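Replying to the earlier thread about multi-chain prediction with a worked example.

Input:
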Amino acid sequence: MNLHIDNVSHSYGQTEVLNNINIEIEKNEIVCIVGPSGCGKSTLLRLIGGLEKPSRGKIFQIGDAPSNSLNPLTYIFQDFALLPWMSVYDNISLVLEDHDLTKKEIKEIVDDVLKRTKLSDFKDVLPKNLSGGMKQRVAIARALSVRPAVMLMDEPLSALDSQTREFLMDDLVSLWEKEKFTACYVTHNLSEAVRLGHKVIVLGSRPSRIQEVISIDIPLSKRKEHAAQLQEKQNYLWNLMKEEAMQADEEVING
Amino acid sequence: MAEKKEIPFRGAGFTYSPVAYIAPIVFVVLIAALEWGTRTEFISNLTLPRPSGVYEAFVELYETGLLFKHLGPSLARLFIGSLIGISLGVAVGVMIGLFNYVRAGLLPVVAALFPVPKIALLPLFVIWFGIDEGSKYALIALGTFTPTVIATYAAVDNVDRNLIRMGQSFGLSWFSIVRKIVLPGALPGIISGLRISFAIGLILLVAAEMLGAEYGIGAYVLEAGSLYDLERLFAGVTILSFIGVMINWLSGIIERRVLSWRT
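Result:
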């Protein structure tokens, strides 16, 4: 299943946040969207997943989601969005309970995703007893459990410290290597974008339009070995964004 | 070489740390001072009763079996009245929190009811529900209803929107979101509202019993007051204070049990 974002513009009241956005997200590819803060990256992601309606333009899915997918468009949130009163296991089974699954099937799925994210030993733990990185792994496990066609990741690593971020990036790469998934990954962190993105889309500041789309051909698993090349891409991206970011920084925030 | 000085500590104070032994000492000192003051007639017997006299009144109450005759109906009234008021209050509060039309329709009604001193309605309730238990239940129920509604809908409003959005993004049904996300998320606010509701219930209980009851702590206190029997009056007041403390203690336990997930 591919996604096609067709000429989408969006405004909140008088303020236009997105202007004529066209993006193609292809199967098994990770598309990173970068841009200065407040440029509407997260808004775009909410539009893609149907949590908000675009003011103009449309978002299409091309082809059907795999028939075993329970929730084709699945989010991973920056703040993890785990229910604090539920254990790790219950947090994941929560999103499966509304589907036509038996208790046994739910248990199989949850056990499987917990194993894939190396969380099996923590299934009875409450979120408050987990570190930030662990919480995000639970959220990733939860997202995997519904077998998404596209994962919509809203700054998933931004609330974590840089060491944890490294570990989780490695985890994401190995998850992708083992079982390819499609993802739209929003971040303001350029090093994440060049490590995880097959395509990096640069948005300008408000009202954002697409400034440039760059492709990175190095396979995800080999990227660490090509640090110099990645750094080059990252510098290039930073030069593109620098002025916009500076402008965005000086802007008076009005709600 | 420059002079070497230790950097002075200036971070003291403004932190809370529990000191367990102070509370009993305060009570003992207070009661001892009263006992001493009344015995030496530094405090006139017309102003305050002697603590030992209050204790004797309490023992007498217990030995004549009147204690439970008064306590039983009082607790039953408090319990039944609050149960009606709180369960209706939680139900209405959740509805106000969830449905815009219910909010638009009922919130003004609740806001108008809230500031009315409920005791003023007692004569009306006596006409409606009779002089017996009915009017007392109604008074306590109404008194606990409004603060529960307000605490509940505020708690529903305060549920983390991100969690609700998460539920929507995973395609959970409306009913699942309410049952598994909104209600548990609102529980801390609802429970802290219950504490206030119970305190109001206790006040109204005494007021209702003072206006017409044969038995009940309120009736006992009123009778002692009109006979100017300070020892028995204070024995009654002490029982009321004790009920209040017990309710607080119980809610504390429930809170820790049910809300152990809070950080």
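The longest strand of chain A covers residues 2-12.

Feel free to reuse this layout for your own posts.
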